[in-house]
Amino acid sequence: MGAVAILPPGEDLTADAGPPQPLTPAEVEQAVAALRQHPLGVDQDVRVSLGGLQSKLLLVQVDGGWARPVGGTPSTHILKPEPPEFPGLAASEAFAQRVAALAGLAAAEVRLEAFGDRLVLVVTRFDRELKGGRLVRRHQEDGCQALGTNPSGPAKYQASDGVVSYQRLAAVLAAHASDQTDQFRRLGAMVTFTVAIGNTDAHLRNHSFMHGTGTLSLAPVYDAAPTAQFAGTRDLALWVGGQAMLAAVTRSHIVRELASWGTETDEAAEVVDSTLQRTADALGQAAQATPEVPRSVVEGCEARVERLLRQH
User: Fold this and answer.
1) What is the pLDDT of residue 55?
2) Of 300, 302, 254, 309, which Cα lies nearest the Cα of 277?
3) Residue 148 burial (C-beta neighbours within 10 Å; 0-12, 13-18, 19+)
4) In this model, does residue 12 exceed pLDDT 50?
5) Is 97:108 a contact under the CB 8 Å cutoff?
6) d(CA 247, CA 42)
7) Does residue 52 contact residue 203 with C-beta atoms inside 8 Å?
8) pTM for this one?
9) pLDDT tens digits, 230-245
């Protein structure tokens, strides 16, 4: 999916929304600093459809800077400041997203910028597009919405076999995707990549579906980070091949997971192996493109991918 275009000043965004409210660089810095008091930059003029109350700021990128998405205007970017309690996480997410893109997975576009003394991950929204000069929202729903699961608390994480799982996400694709085989391959590549980079936080809300006319498809990879090197848990948010612990997942577990959706074993193995090899090839280039990423994070990903490849 293509990136959202930068909008010139005064561009009409939607039929029922006024122009965004321009912000000075100092005002953006202030908004970033105030996120704990005003999550997502929300006030009486800003409407949001993004779930959760994480430290994220929704803005519109315009020619020459940033603006607030007031009066129903769609935001174009999500700004995620570096969490003080997890130094290196913003750069590590940028690194992981770049690895995904270089490995051939559809992935949200990201970049790192400094706002005052805060390093910020700037994410281009993939659920926006320009139509006739107007920026419009694309209909999507996350995994919790698709499975009718409570998005708050632990319900978005798998706690028992079959209740919340990749199998259930695959079943949504089987029921509604126009090209089930293609979508299963994409989901299989995502699962493989999740294990390869050590993303233990790929819960239901971090998987989404894009709606089309009479069909749906997987959204690009987003919110992907090597969280195993930052979080205390070593358990995967969604199990792989019946295995909950990241360190215990083998290549065979990943192949078994894909095969459980109805994919032929040989095809599942091909998806896993090709994704692992492309990920291995992408790590160095992504590290060069992200000099801010801690070397320990890169080395951890390299070791994990090498271990999985040796199991072929």
Assistant:
1) 79
2) 309
3) exposed
4) no
5) yes
6) 39
7) no
8) 0.89
9) 987 789 999 999 999 9
Distance between terminal CA atoms of the chain? 32
175-197, pLDDT tens digit by residue? 999 999 999 999 999 999 999 99
Distances (CA, A) of 295 to 226, 251, 255, 301: 12, 25, 30, 10
User: Which residue, 51, 248, 265, 285, is CA-closest to 153?
Assistant: 51
Give the residue from 187, 174, 166 showing the smallest Cα distance to 268: 187
Q: Is the dihedral of CA 264, 271, 226, 169 positive or negative?
A: negative
Amino acid at 42: V
Under a CB-based contact definition with an 8 Å cutoff, are residues 236 and 202 in contact? yes
Q: Which residues pair with 118 in a beta bridge?
A: 115
Under 8 Å between Cβ of 124 and 108? yes
Per-residue HEC secondary structure of the chain comes to CCCCCCECCCCCCECCECCCEEECHHHHHHHHHCCCCCCECCCCCECCCCCCCCCCEEEEEECCEEEECECCCCCCEEEEECCCCCCCHHHHHHHHHHHHHHCCCCECCEEEEEECCEEEEEEECCCEEEECCEEEECCEEEHHHHHCCCCCHHHHCCCCCCCCCHHHHHHHHHHHCCCHHHHHHHHHHHHHHHHHHCCCCCCHHHCEEEEECCEEEECCECCCCCHHHCCCCCEEEEEECCEEEHHHCCHHHHHHHHHCCCCCHHHHHHHHHHHHHHHHHHHHHHHHHCCCCCHHHHHHHHHHHHHHHHCC
57 has a pLDDT exceeding 50: yes
Q: Is the pLDDT of residue 18 over 80?
A: no
Taking a C-beta distance cutoff of 8 angstroms, is the pair 297, 286 a contact? no
pLDDT of residue 45: 43
Asked whether the CA dihedral 98, 103, 104, 105 is positive or negative, the reply is: negative
